[in-house]
Amino acid sequence: MANGESEVGADAPAGGFVQLLTPEGERVDSVTTAEGVTYSVSFTDEEYRELYRDLVTVRRLDAEATALQRQGELGIWASLLGQEAAQVGSGRAMRKQDMAFPTYREHGVLYTRGIDPIMPFGLFRGVDQGGWDPNEYKFNTYTIVIGSQTLHATGYAMGVTMDGRTGGPDGEAVIAYFGDGATSQGEVNEAFVWAGVFNSPMVFFCQNNQYAISEPLERQTRIPLYRRAAGFGFPGVRIDGNDVLASYAVTRSALDNARNGNGPTLIEAYTYRMGAHTSSDDPTRYRIASEVESWKAKDPISRFKAFLTKQQLADDDFFGQVDEDARTLALNLREQVLAMPDPQPISIFDNVYPNGSPLVDAQRKQFADYQAAFEGSAH
Ligand SMILES: Cc1ncc(C[n+]2csc(CCOP(=O)(O)OP(=O)(O)O)c2C)c(N)n1
Ligand SMILES: [Mg+2]
């Protein structure tokens, strides 16, 4: 219970969630769950300000990418709008040696790993595979095949144990990101089984943004997603996914448990996808405006700004400077995107197999002939 009161915030779904910062920007000192686990955070003033900077920066990068897609410079974009706190909090909770397995939406986590934020722009333009080295940054490549990365992560985590790289503060833990919709995939349930029975150093971080494209949460599950973990024999915790402090506290605790041999945790970050599923989607066809409006009041950045202001940790000069720095970074990214080459459709046949394949080679030739005929007919 928070400060002797309920862990259930006024805006919490039935069953409650861990919240350390209310939508109004009020700090909750600590939260103790029904299982008796207490969560809290302790940051310096500077660390609080840096978290705010992260949140604003990743939202600004995302807005720039959305604009670039609309202007025909990116083929598609999967926006993180609304999910900044879930991503920045959990990303910053990782220790340097921890390994992450993302989906296609984790631009905020990517940023916290120290990867140049231009990388996903090249991927979504279609000119490369992302470009970062997963081993160097301990952040795997983006994964589009829903849920598959949870098995990759679990296999990797089993390897960490077999190699003896767990235990102590320098031990390694693994975090797999996935969405609410992914919980209906066989792979995710198989990953839960394997990670559970092998007591793997895993954190399953589910961003429940309420939709799998147009499918709402009530078509995904009859019980809250975090409660699924009980059936696999490990703890499940629901957090306010729009609260960067709760995301940090619970993820840090779960990763440390994992690295110390205490097995996996499922974290359900209860949040909302404020934008479209991707730039190819029109959410007005399946959800009503008042729902989106109600989530605006729970915005992860405005609550953090309200907190910093109330606590006199930051002033208007600081907020203005953060906005200006984010804008400069975004404009720099724009210039880099405009300087990128056009995507070459024929390149989709590259990198399918390391040593090629007769079938793919035949398909490449067929496509090249088609392109040549197409280009010929245009003249
Ligand atoms: C195996 C598989 N099936 C279907 C798709 C098509 N698809 C792309 S995103 C998506 C919905 C995913 O929803 P969720 O897991 O909630 O993640 P979100 O996009 O909301 O972050 C689907 C069905 C896919 N990429 N892979
Ligand atoms: Mg979803």
Automatic annotation (TrEMBL):
Signal peptide feature range: none
Organism: Winogradskya humida
InterPro entries named among the record's database cross-references: Alpha-ketoacid_DH_E1_comp (IPR050771), DH_E1 (IPR001017), PdhA/BkdA (IPR017596), THDP-binding (IPR029061)
CDD domains, alphabetized: TPP_E1_PDC_ADC_BCADC (cd02000)
Protein name: Pyruvate dehydrogenase E1 component subunit alpha
Gene that specifies this protein: pdhA_1
Cofactor(s) required for function per UniProt: thiamine diphosphate
Pfam families xref list: E1_dh
Domain Dehydrogenase E1 component: 56-327
Highest taxon of source: Bacteria
Keywords assigned: Oxidoreductase, Pyruvate, Thiamine pyrophosphate
